[in-house]
Amino acid sequence: MPQIVEFPERPYIGIRKTITMTSFGLVGDRIAEMIGWLAERGHTPAGAPFFRYDSIDLPQDRLVVEAGVPVTAPVAGEGELHAGTLPAGRFVTESHHGHPDQLSGVIESVLTWAAEQGLTWDMTEKGGTEHWGCRLELYRTDPRVEPDLNKWDIDLQFRLA
Predict the structure, then answer these.
(1) Per-domain residue ranges for the chain?
(2) Which of 5, 49, 158, 161 could form a disulfide with 120 if both were Cys (CB 3.0 to 4.6 A apart)?
(3) Do 63 and 57 touch, CB atoms closer than 8 A?
(4) Spatial distance between the Cα atoms of 39 and 11, rounded to a whole number of angstroms
(5) How many other β-carbons are positioned within 10 Å of the β-carbon of residue 118?
């Protein structure tokens, strides 16, 4: 069952790309690089790496997505890496245990639950594209420890208006 949780601002380092569903690796494959980049500079992640969906246009198969790694304090970016801050606010959260390919059903149930509760997302729609204030998938399982995607733990956090 989804819950509503209040989160403070959270700094991160990230990489943003415009991708399709089949080119997700352009951002996803960069997470290990970001963690290594932080380690080289004496920083450790302050939580699970995530994908932040800035805009979603599924009919056109066009997404603007960031891969990010939270940090304890702001870190200056370099090259394609940029510093960012996840906004504070109330978020609908839900956890999923299983393959990331199963997330679409979990997302649908979260969206349906929120509609039934009369909740409004921090999202605007323009020309068929959803523009999200903060929509996250946090990957709590380290693939080096657990390579079986069917055993992964993933949290969803969608910001409310």
Answers:
(1) 3-159
(2) 161
(3) yes
(4) 16
(5) 6
What is the per-residue pLDDT across 13-58, written as a single tens digit (0 to 9) for each?
999 999 999 999 999 999 999 999 999 999 999 999 999 999 999 9
Closest CA to 94 of 86, 105, 81: 105
Token pair belonging to 158? 């969608």
pTM of the model as a whole: 0.95
150 in Cβ contact with 161 (< 8 Å): no
- Classified by CATH at the fold level, domain 3-159 comes out as Multidrug-efflux Transporter 1 Regulator Bmrr; Chain A (3.20.80)
**In contact, 154 and 100? CB cutoff 8 Å:** yes
Cα 119 to Cα 34: distance, rounded to the nearest angstrom: 34
Instruction: Give just the sign of the alpha carbon dihedral 126, 139, 27, 82.
Output: positive
